[in-house]
Each structure stands twice: as structure tokens, then as C-alpha cells.
Amino acid sequence: MDYQIFDLMRTRYGLCGSWTVWIESPWSPDSIRAPLLRLDSVVRTFGEVRSQQQLDTELPSLRTDLVLVALNFAERAAGITAVTDRLSFASFHEECGRTSDRRLRDACKANGLEGAYITDLVKMQGGKVAPFRSSKSMPINTLLRDPRFVREQVDGLCEELQTLGSRNPLIVGLGAQVYKALYAPASLDKLRETCGNGTQVARITHYSSMTGMALPTYISRVGQELADFRDYL
Predict the structure, then answer these.
(1) Torsions phi, psi of 216, nearest 5?
(2) Domain of life here (predicted)?
(3) What digits encode the pLDDT tens for the residues 23-77?
(4) For residues 148 and 154, what is the distance between their CA atoms, to the nearest angstrom?
């Protein structure tokens, strides 16, 4: 991974994107303002890397040819949001409360998805990154029925992947809604125009515990869903 690209992604997309790497030790970034917030300590590493040598040593597994796309920001308490919004690459790394981020971690580690870039689809407004914070499905479902809204989100994702330097990636949608939006002919054409004709879109079941699947079952399901894409992993 080129450090200049990493730093550019950190600056432009650090609020909404991250990487599927974990150190598996907890870190409390602000015990006063958000005493219940625990993040995987790799988030601290993301912020401390300041050179190519550090990046190669501390985060050698980062990839640009494998991209995971979730739907949108989950809603969080104001105190937690105030802390995470000043960190880079903190998404998908919570270790506290009801979060399912650890389920994502274990599924990625078991199925060749570790090191991927990960971001949300719904995050653009007026050409700028503007996280849509909601844990309810109805508002998102309504927005995704608007082709113009979907096009704005896909265009934003394409610009993000272009900044990342992603060429002919495997893009994995987390859940049916994301997959449907990305695999639509207009979206797929735009993604391939931006990233190369070899770009592929796959789908895996979302990692939320609301699926009702025990973790071993979920990990196995993800493996089955990626069976046709093993050459990318």
C-alpha cells in the first residue's frame, strides 16, 4: 500500500471508510466524553502511521483490490459520535455494547477478507461526504427507490475507489440492499468504467446479529457465498 494514497484516504474518507484489519486489543479513545466506547486498537495505529516505513511495518496487509461495502452509518449516542467523528478509519471497529463489528472481524479473518478496504454506500449529499446515520431500515429503503439518489451514492463510491487506486477489484456488498444497488446495470457499468472491466460484484450476508445466525453459522455462510470468488481472495 502506498503511503501517500493511505494518507489521502485518511484525510478524505477516514470518517466513513476503514480497513478490515484488527489487532484485537481494546482501546478507549476518550474515557471522559465516551466512557463506554471501546475500539480495536488498530484505530490508534491508523492515526499514528506517518511514513511508508511505518505503514509497511504496522499495516502490511492493506489491499486496494478487495472492497467491502456496507449500507450506512449506524446510529450512535451523541457522546460516541463526537469522539469517533474526530478519528480516522474508526468505523467497523467498535468493541462495545450491541455492536456486531466483532462478527465482521471473525468472518473476514476466516474467509480471506482481511486487509480489504471497507466503506458505506450511503454517505454522499451534494457531492460531499455526509454520513446518513440511522439504524432503521425504512428511511434507507425509501431513499434507495430513487434512481438519482442511488446514482449519487455510486458516483461517490467510484470517486472514492479512484482515489484508492483500486483496479479490477472484487467489490463485496454486505447485504441484499447494497448488492442490488451495486449490481444494477447502470451501477456496474459505472464501477467498471472507473475501476476496470475486470471489476466484479459479490454479495455476502450482513454481519448483524439480527440475522439470528450464530457466529460459526455466519462464518460458514460467508464462505459459501464467496465460493465462486476464491481467486480474488
Answers:
(1) -60, -35
(2) Bacteria
(3) 999 999 999 999 989 999 999 999 999 999 999 999 999 999 999 999 988 778 8
(4) 10
Contact in structure between 118 and 151 (CB atoms under 8 Å) = no
Q: Where are the alpha helices (DSSP H) in 14-96?
A: 42-48, 52-58, 78-84
Contacts of 228 (CB under 8 A, 6+ apart): 202
User: How crowded is residue 135: how many other Cβ atoms within 10 Å of its Cβ?
Assistant: 13
Instruction: Find out if CATH 3.30.70 is the number for domain 3-225.
Output: no
Q: What phi and psi values does residue 124 have, to the nearest 5 degrees?
A: -110, 140
pTM of the model: 0.95
- Give the span between the Cα atoms of 175 and 128, in whole angstroms: 24
CB half-sphere exposure, 24, CA atoms < 13 A: 6
Q: Which residue has the cell 456496474?
A: 188
Kindly state the cell numbers that stand for 124.
Answer: 454522499
111 by Cβ neighbours in 10 Å (0-12 / 13-18 / 19+) ranks as buried
